[in-house]
Task: inverse folding
């Protein structure tokens, strides 16, 4: 596996590999099996696999969250070697942003709900860094986990708006044996918090099965009530939304597909998850 720190050396090497199919997995590091599954899928579908590790400061609206984001580059690199990554791009902030970024994207209704409402500016920062990474790596396919379903929708809209020549591949959420969605943030949980964290997924999964007997509103209220039974949880939002524009669903008949989304604070750690209803 080759490790590059600069855009020029990364481009120079990838240009020498022109003609090979290239799959790309952008990450912020602190890798777990969910990330590695993305790399494995990219490995299966492409002749060359590139991964980036870059903690993108402009997508954090909370400076403390940025400061505490786990960084373990050597361990990450060893994990990537084990699953057949060919190229690891690890730039620093000055390499990615030699000048302040002023680009503003309009992702329409997708960015105005849930994570967009809770974290102003977050998706603009995501859009900027993903566009830059696509321009540097020039992959044919890029792989993203469905745990961050709204981010996946935003990236698909970015690709559509800018007519970027890359296929976005969404991959199923990878979970711990107890159901907790794998996330780099999980390592910040205390033992007590980690023990109760799976209750988020359990509540979503339990009520998502009852579309035939619950309205969207009653399903949402039932999940809120269930999570309020755990005193360590502080709910940011529970939302039932369509799977295209992520707008709230008030009647099942109004959507061709829907998911239930959750953002829940556990101590100082904010966890997100989602479960498809239909």
Result:
């Amino acid at each position: 596996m080759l490790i590059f720190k600069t855009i020029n050396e990364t481009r120079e090497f990838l240009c020498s590999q022109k003609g090979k199919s290239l799959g790309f997995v952008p990450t912020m590091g602190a890798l777990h099996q969910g990330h590695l599954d993305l790399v494995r899928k990219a490995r299966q579908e492409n002749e060359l696999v590139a991964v980036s590790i870059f903690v993108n400061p402009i997508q954090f609206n909370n400076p403390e969250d940025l400061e505490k984001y786990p960084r373990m580059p050597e361990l990450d690199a060893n994990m990537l070697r084990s699953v057949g990554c060919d190229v690891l791009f690890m730039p620093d902030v000055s390499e990615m942003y030699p000048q302040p970024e002023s680009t503003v994207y309009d992702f329409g209704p997708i960015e105005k709900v849930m994570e967009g409402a809770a974290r102003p500016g977050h998706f603009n920062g995501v859009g900027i860094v993903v566009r830059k990474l696509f321009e540097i790596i020039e992959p044919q396919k890029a792989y993203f986990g469905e745990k961050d379903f709204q981010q996946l929708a935003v990236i698909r809209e970015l690709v559509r708006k800018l007519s970027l020549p890359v296929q976005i591949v969404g991959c199923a959420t990878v979970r711990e044996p107890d159901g907790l969605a794998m996330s780099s943030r999980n390592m910040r949980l205390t033992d007590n918090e980690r023990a109760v964290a799976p209750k988020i997924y359990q509540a979503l999964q339990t009520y998502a099965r009852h579309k035939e007997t619950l309205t969207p509103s009653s399903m949402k209220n039932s999940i809120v009530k269930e999570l309020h039974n755990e005193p360590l949880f502080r709910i940011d939002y529970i939302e039932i939304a369509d799977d295209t524009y992520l707008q709230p669903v008030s009647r099942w008949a109004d959507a061709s597909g829907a998911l239930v989304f959750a953002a829940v604070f556990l101590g100082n750690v904010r966890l997100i998850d989602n479960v498809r209803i239909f």
User: Anything to note?
Assistant: The two ends are 41 Å apart (CA to CA). Residues 141 and 167 are 5 Å apart (CA to CA).
